[in-house]
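#onboarding

Welcome to the new folks! Below is a worked example of what a typical request in this channel looks like: someone posts a single protein sequence, and someone else replies with the predicted structure as tokens. Don't worry about understanding the tokens yet, we'll cover that in week two.

Example request:
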Amino acid sequence: MHPLILAIESSCDETSASIIQAGKVLNNVIASQTVHQKYGGVVPELASRAHQQQIHHVVNEALTSADIRPQQLNAIAFTRGPGLLGSLLVGVSFAKGMALGLQLPLIEVNHMEAHVLAHFIDEPKPSFPFLCLTVSGGHTQLVLVHDYLNMEVIGETRDDAIGEAFDKAAKMMDFPYPGGPLIDKYAQLGNPKAFKFPHTSIPGLDFSFSGIKTAFLYFLRDNKKNEPRFAELFRHDICASLQAHLVSMVMNKLKEAVLQTGINRVAIAGGVAANSGLRKSLQEQAAHSGWGVFIPDFEYCTDNAAMIAIAAHYKYLAKCFASLDVAPLANLAIGD
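Example response:
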């Protein structure tokens, strides 16, 4: 069976389409939204409007660049959730309309499960079972992956996600949105031991990042009393210290998960998986402990339709199709 599938991703502020054939991703078209930069974060209403403006062009480009006619497709896949409801609705509605017009089956995809399955787009691919640390602006989870369609969340954040902690800290330092990548950029020129921040102690494998955001706010406020230009003068050391602290928080939980499960095949996924500090820390731990480590290409870390496509491929093989009355779910969880 060699399915040819069009996949659509519209969960937040990236409009993306991808074509997959026989499990091989042919392209990954992404249209980013710049309208949110002046607001310092994603504005849901503006995001949904931008998706409406871009989705037809993005889908058409994916089909054209792959030299595929719509009539050749075997299925249409889309992100059902989690994400911004208005943004999801644009992608779901477009996919449903296209599937209805072409009389094709629909495949709904869980956005977070797709991040995990991005590891199966290219080699090397992990064998089952493996642990995946999913880290993004909206989620921080430890996932025990039993199979392509069988995943179990064994740890997650109780409040904020690590990506939000990066972005909020960047905003406090007056960096433009999105600020997380800028912290990573400046951190590479700083001393990660220059400043200390408190650890939030949560039992088990769960995370908490709300405390570090508050601590960072007070850290900047107190130091600016003596030196108003503190954040500017010590930018690199501040970023390096904060990044090292946040990375250590997730790495400590990841090491604990390896000990508890006995599984030493470890993957990372999600937008924060592009962070150089996290990648370096994971590779160093792998060299020290003998872990098998899997890190996706940068292209497949942030929101993209290629990961939706690979997830849809395995769902197609399992004949997991959605009905035409399917609706987006903003708070869809892994396993739902």
